[in-house]
Amino acid sequence: MKWRDEGIIISTKKHGDKNLIISLFTQNHGRRKGLAKLVSNKFQISNLLDVEWNARLPENLGFFKCELIESPLHHFFHNRLKNIAIISFASILEKVLPEGESYSLLYGHFLHFIHIMKQDNEMWQGHYIDLELSLLTQLGFNLDLSKCAVTGTTENLKFISPKTGRAVSTAVGISYADKLFPFPQILYDIYNHNIQNSYSYSEFQSGLKITGYFLNKYLLLQLSVKLPEARSLMLTETFCSF
């Protein structure tokens, strides 16, 4: 059994003295694991590899023959928050993606996000939240933030229902504000394909809290796993100055 693909490293684990078990999010084969010879610097999270996978049977762990296409880490090595964001999303993929199922649109989205991370600006924050929304959508849990769930209006959308993941207008939601999420501008912009160059860190955190809630509700709790520690770090005040 053999196939060839390209993939992004989302986790690694040492296996003996000379091998690693690496987990890749591949373009056409989804999340796949395999053994690889331990080579320094080739197997960092976010590295893009050209791989050939070999195994006697499809259900076997198999072995990866790898060639490095790109190592983007040096572009943001000194930005701790960017490093944490990459590790966060890679860890979420490792936890929730079923093995061997193709998600080519999500793969392209993740690759685009890594490209944005290499640029010297803060536009990546909106794209990170967009990436989590894309993950929810690709796994069948699309949030509907286009119109009010009750009236259908597209104006004055100020809340999001934690029960349905749908937007709620000011007129409808004001009486239940304590039971609804505020609808942050960053999510509104993302949903309307109008991501800005930068947002305040508190605005970024507001978006993270909402996508994190739905990731937990729809995916992680069903799998009895938790959001990765790296993602929790992005919600601490420690990083508000980055």
Automatic annotation (TrEMBL):
<dbReference type="InterPro" id="IPR042242">
    <property type="entry name" value="RecO_C"/>
</dbReference>
<dbReference type="InterPro" id="IPR037278">
    <property type="entry name" value="ARFGAP/RecO"/>
</dbReference>
<dbReference type="InterPro" id="IPR003717">
    <property type="entry name" value="RecO"/>
</dbReference>
<keyword id="KW-0233">DNA recombination</keyword>
<dbReference type="Pfam" id="PF02565">
    <property type="entry name" value="RecO_C"/>
</dbReference>
<feature type="domain" description="DNA replication/recombination mediator RecO N-terminal">
    <location>
        <begin position="1"/>
        <end position="71"/>
    </location>
</feature>
<dbReference type="GO" id="GO:0006302">
    <property type="term" value="P:double-strand break repair"/>
</dbReference>
<keyword id="KW-0227">DNA damage</keyword>
<dbReference type="Pfam" id="PF11967">
    <property type="entry name" value="RecO_N"/>
</dbReference>
<dbReference type="GO" id="GO:0043590">
    <property type="term" value="C:bacterial nucleoid"/>
</dbReference>
<protein>
    <recommendedName>
        <fullName>DNA repair protein RecO</fullName>
    </recommendedName>
</protein>
<comment type="similarity">
    <text>Belongs to the RecO family.</text>
</comment>
<dbReference type="GO" id="GO:0006310">
    <property type="term" value="P:DNA recombination"/>
</dbReference>
<keyword id="KW-0234">DNA repair</keyword>
<dbReference type="InterPro" id="IPR022572">
    <property type="entry name" value="DNA_rep/recomb_RecO_N"/>
</dbReference>
<dbReference type="InterPro" id="IPR012340">
    <property type="entry name" value="NA-bd_OB-fold"/>
</dbReference>
